[in-house]
Structure formats: structure tokens, C-alpha cells
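Hi F.,

I've been meaning to write this up properly since the lab meeting, where we talked about keeping a consistent format for the predictions we share between groups. The idea is simple: the sequence comes first, exactly as it goes in, then the C-alpha cells exactly as they come out, then a line or two of notes. No screenshots and no reformatting. I'm using this chain as the first example so we have something concrete to point to.
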Amino acid sequence: MKFTEINIPKEKSLELESFREMDYFVVKNYNLPIELMMENAGLQLANLGIMKK
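Output, unedited:
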């Protein structure tokens, strides 16, 4: 299986620690389950991959 490479400029990306902080902030302040956030993140990655074809 061949995967399409997605290039994102450094200035538009977040470091892993920033993602963690953002996730925990949302879980704590908006009461969103982390599982729902991960499911939505995976869905958006799949959609991005489909659009890049």
C-alpha cells in the first residue's frame, strides 16, 4: 500500500506537546470525551487523504 505524503509548513504545524495541552484543555473545560476527539481526528485525516488523491 502506498501512502500519499502530505507536506505541512512548519509555521502551520503544532508540536506534540502543544496538541496534548490543547486536548487536555478541551477535555477539562468543555467536557468532551478524549475518545470522541481522537475519533474525529482520525476521520479528518482519512478525509484529508481522500481529498489529496
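Notes:
Residues 15-51 form one domain.
Helices lie at 16-30, 34-51.

If this format works for you, I'll send the rest the same way.

G.
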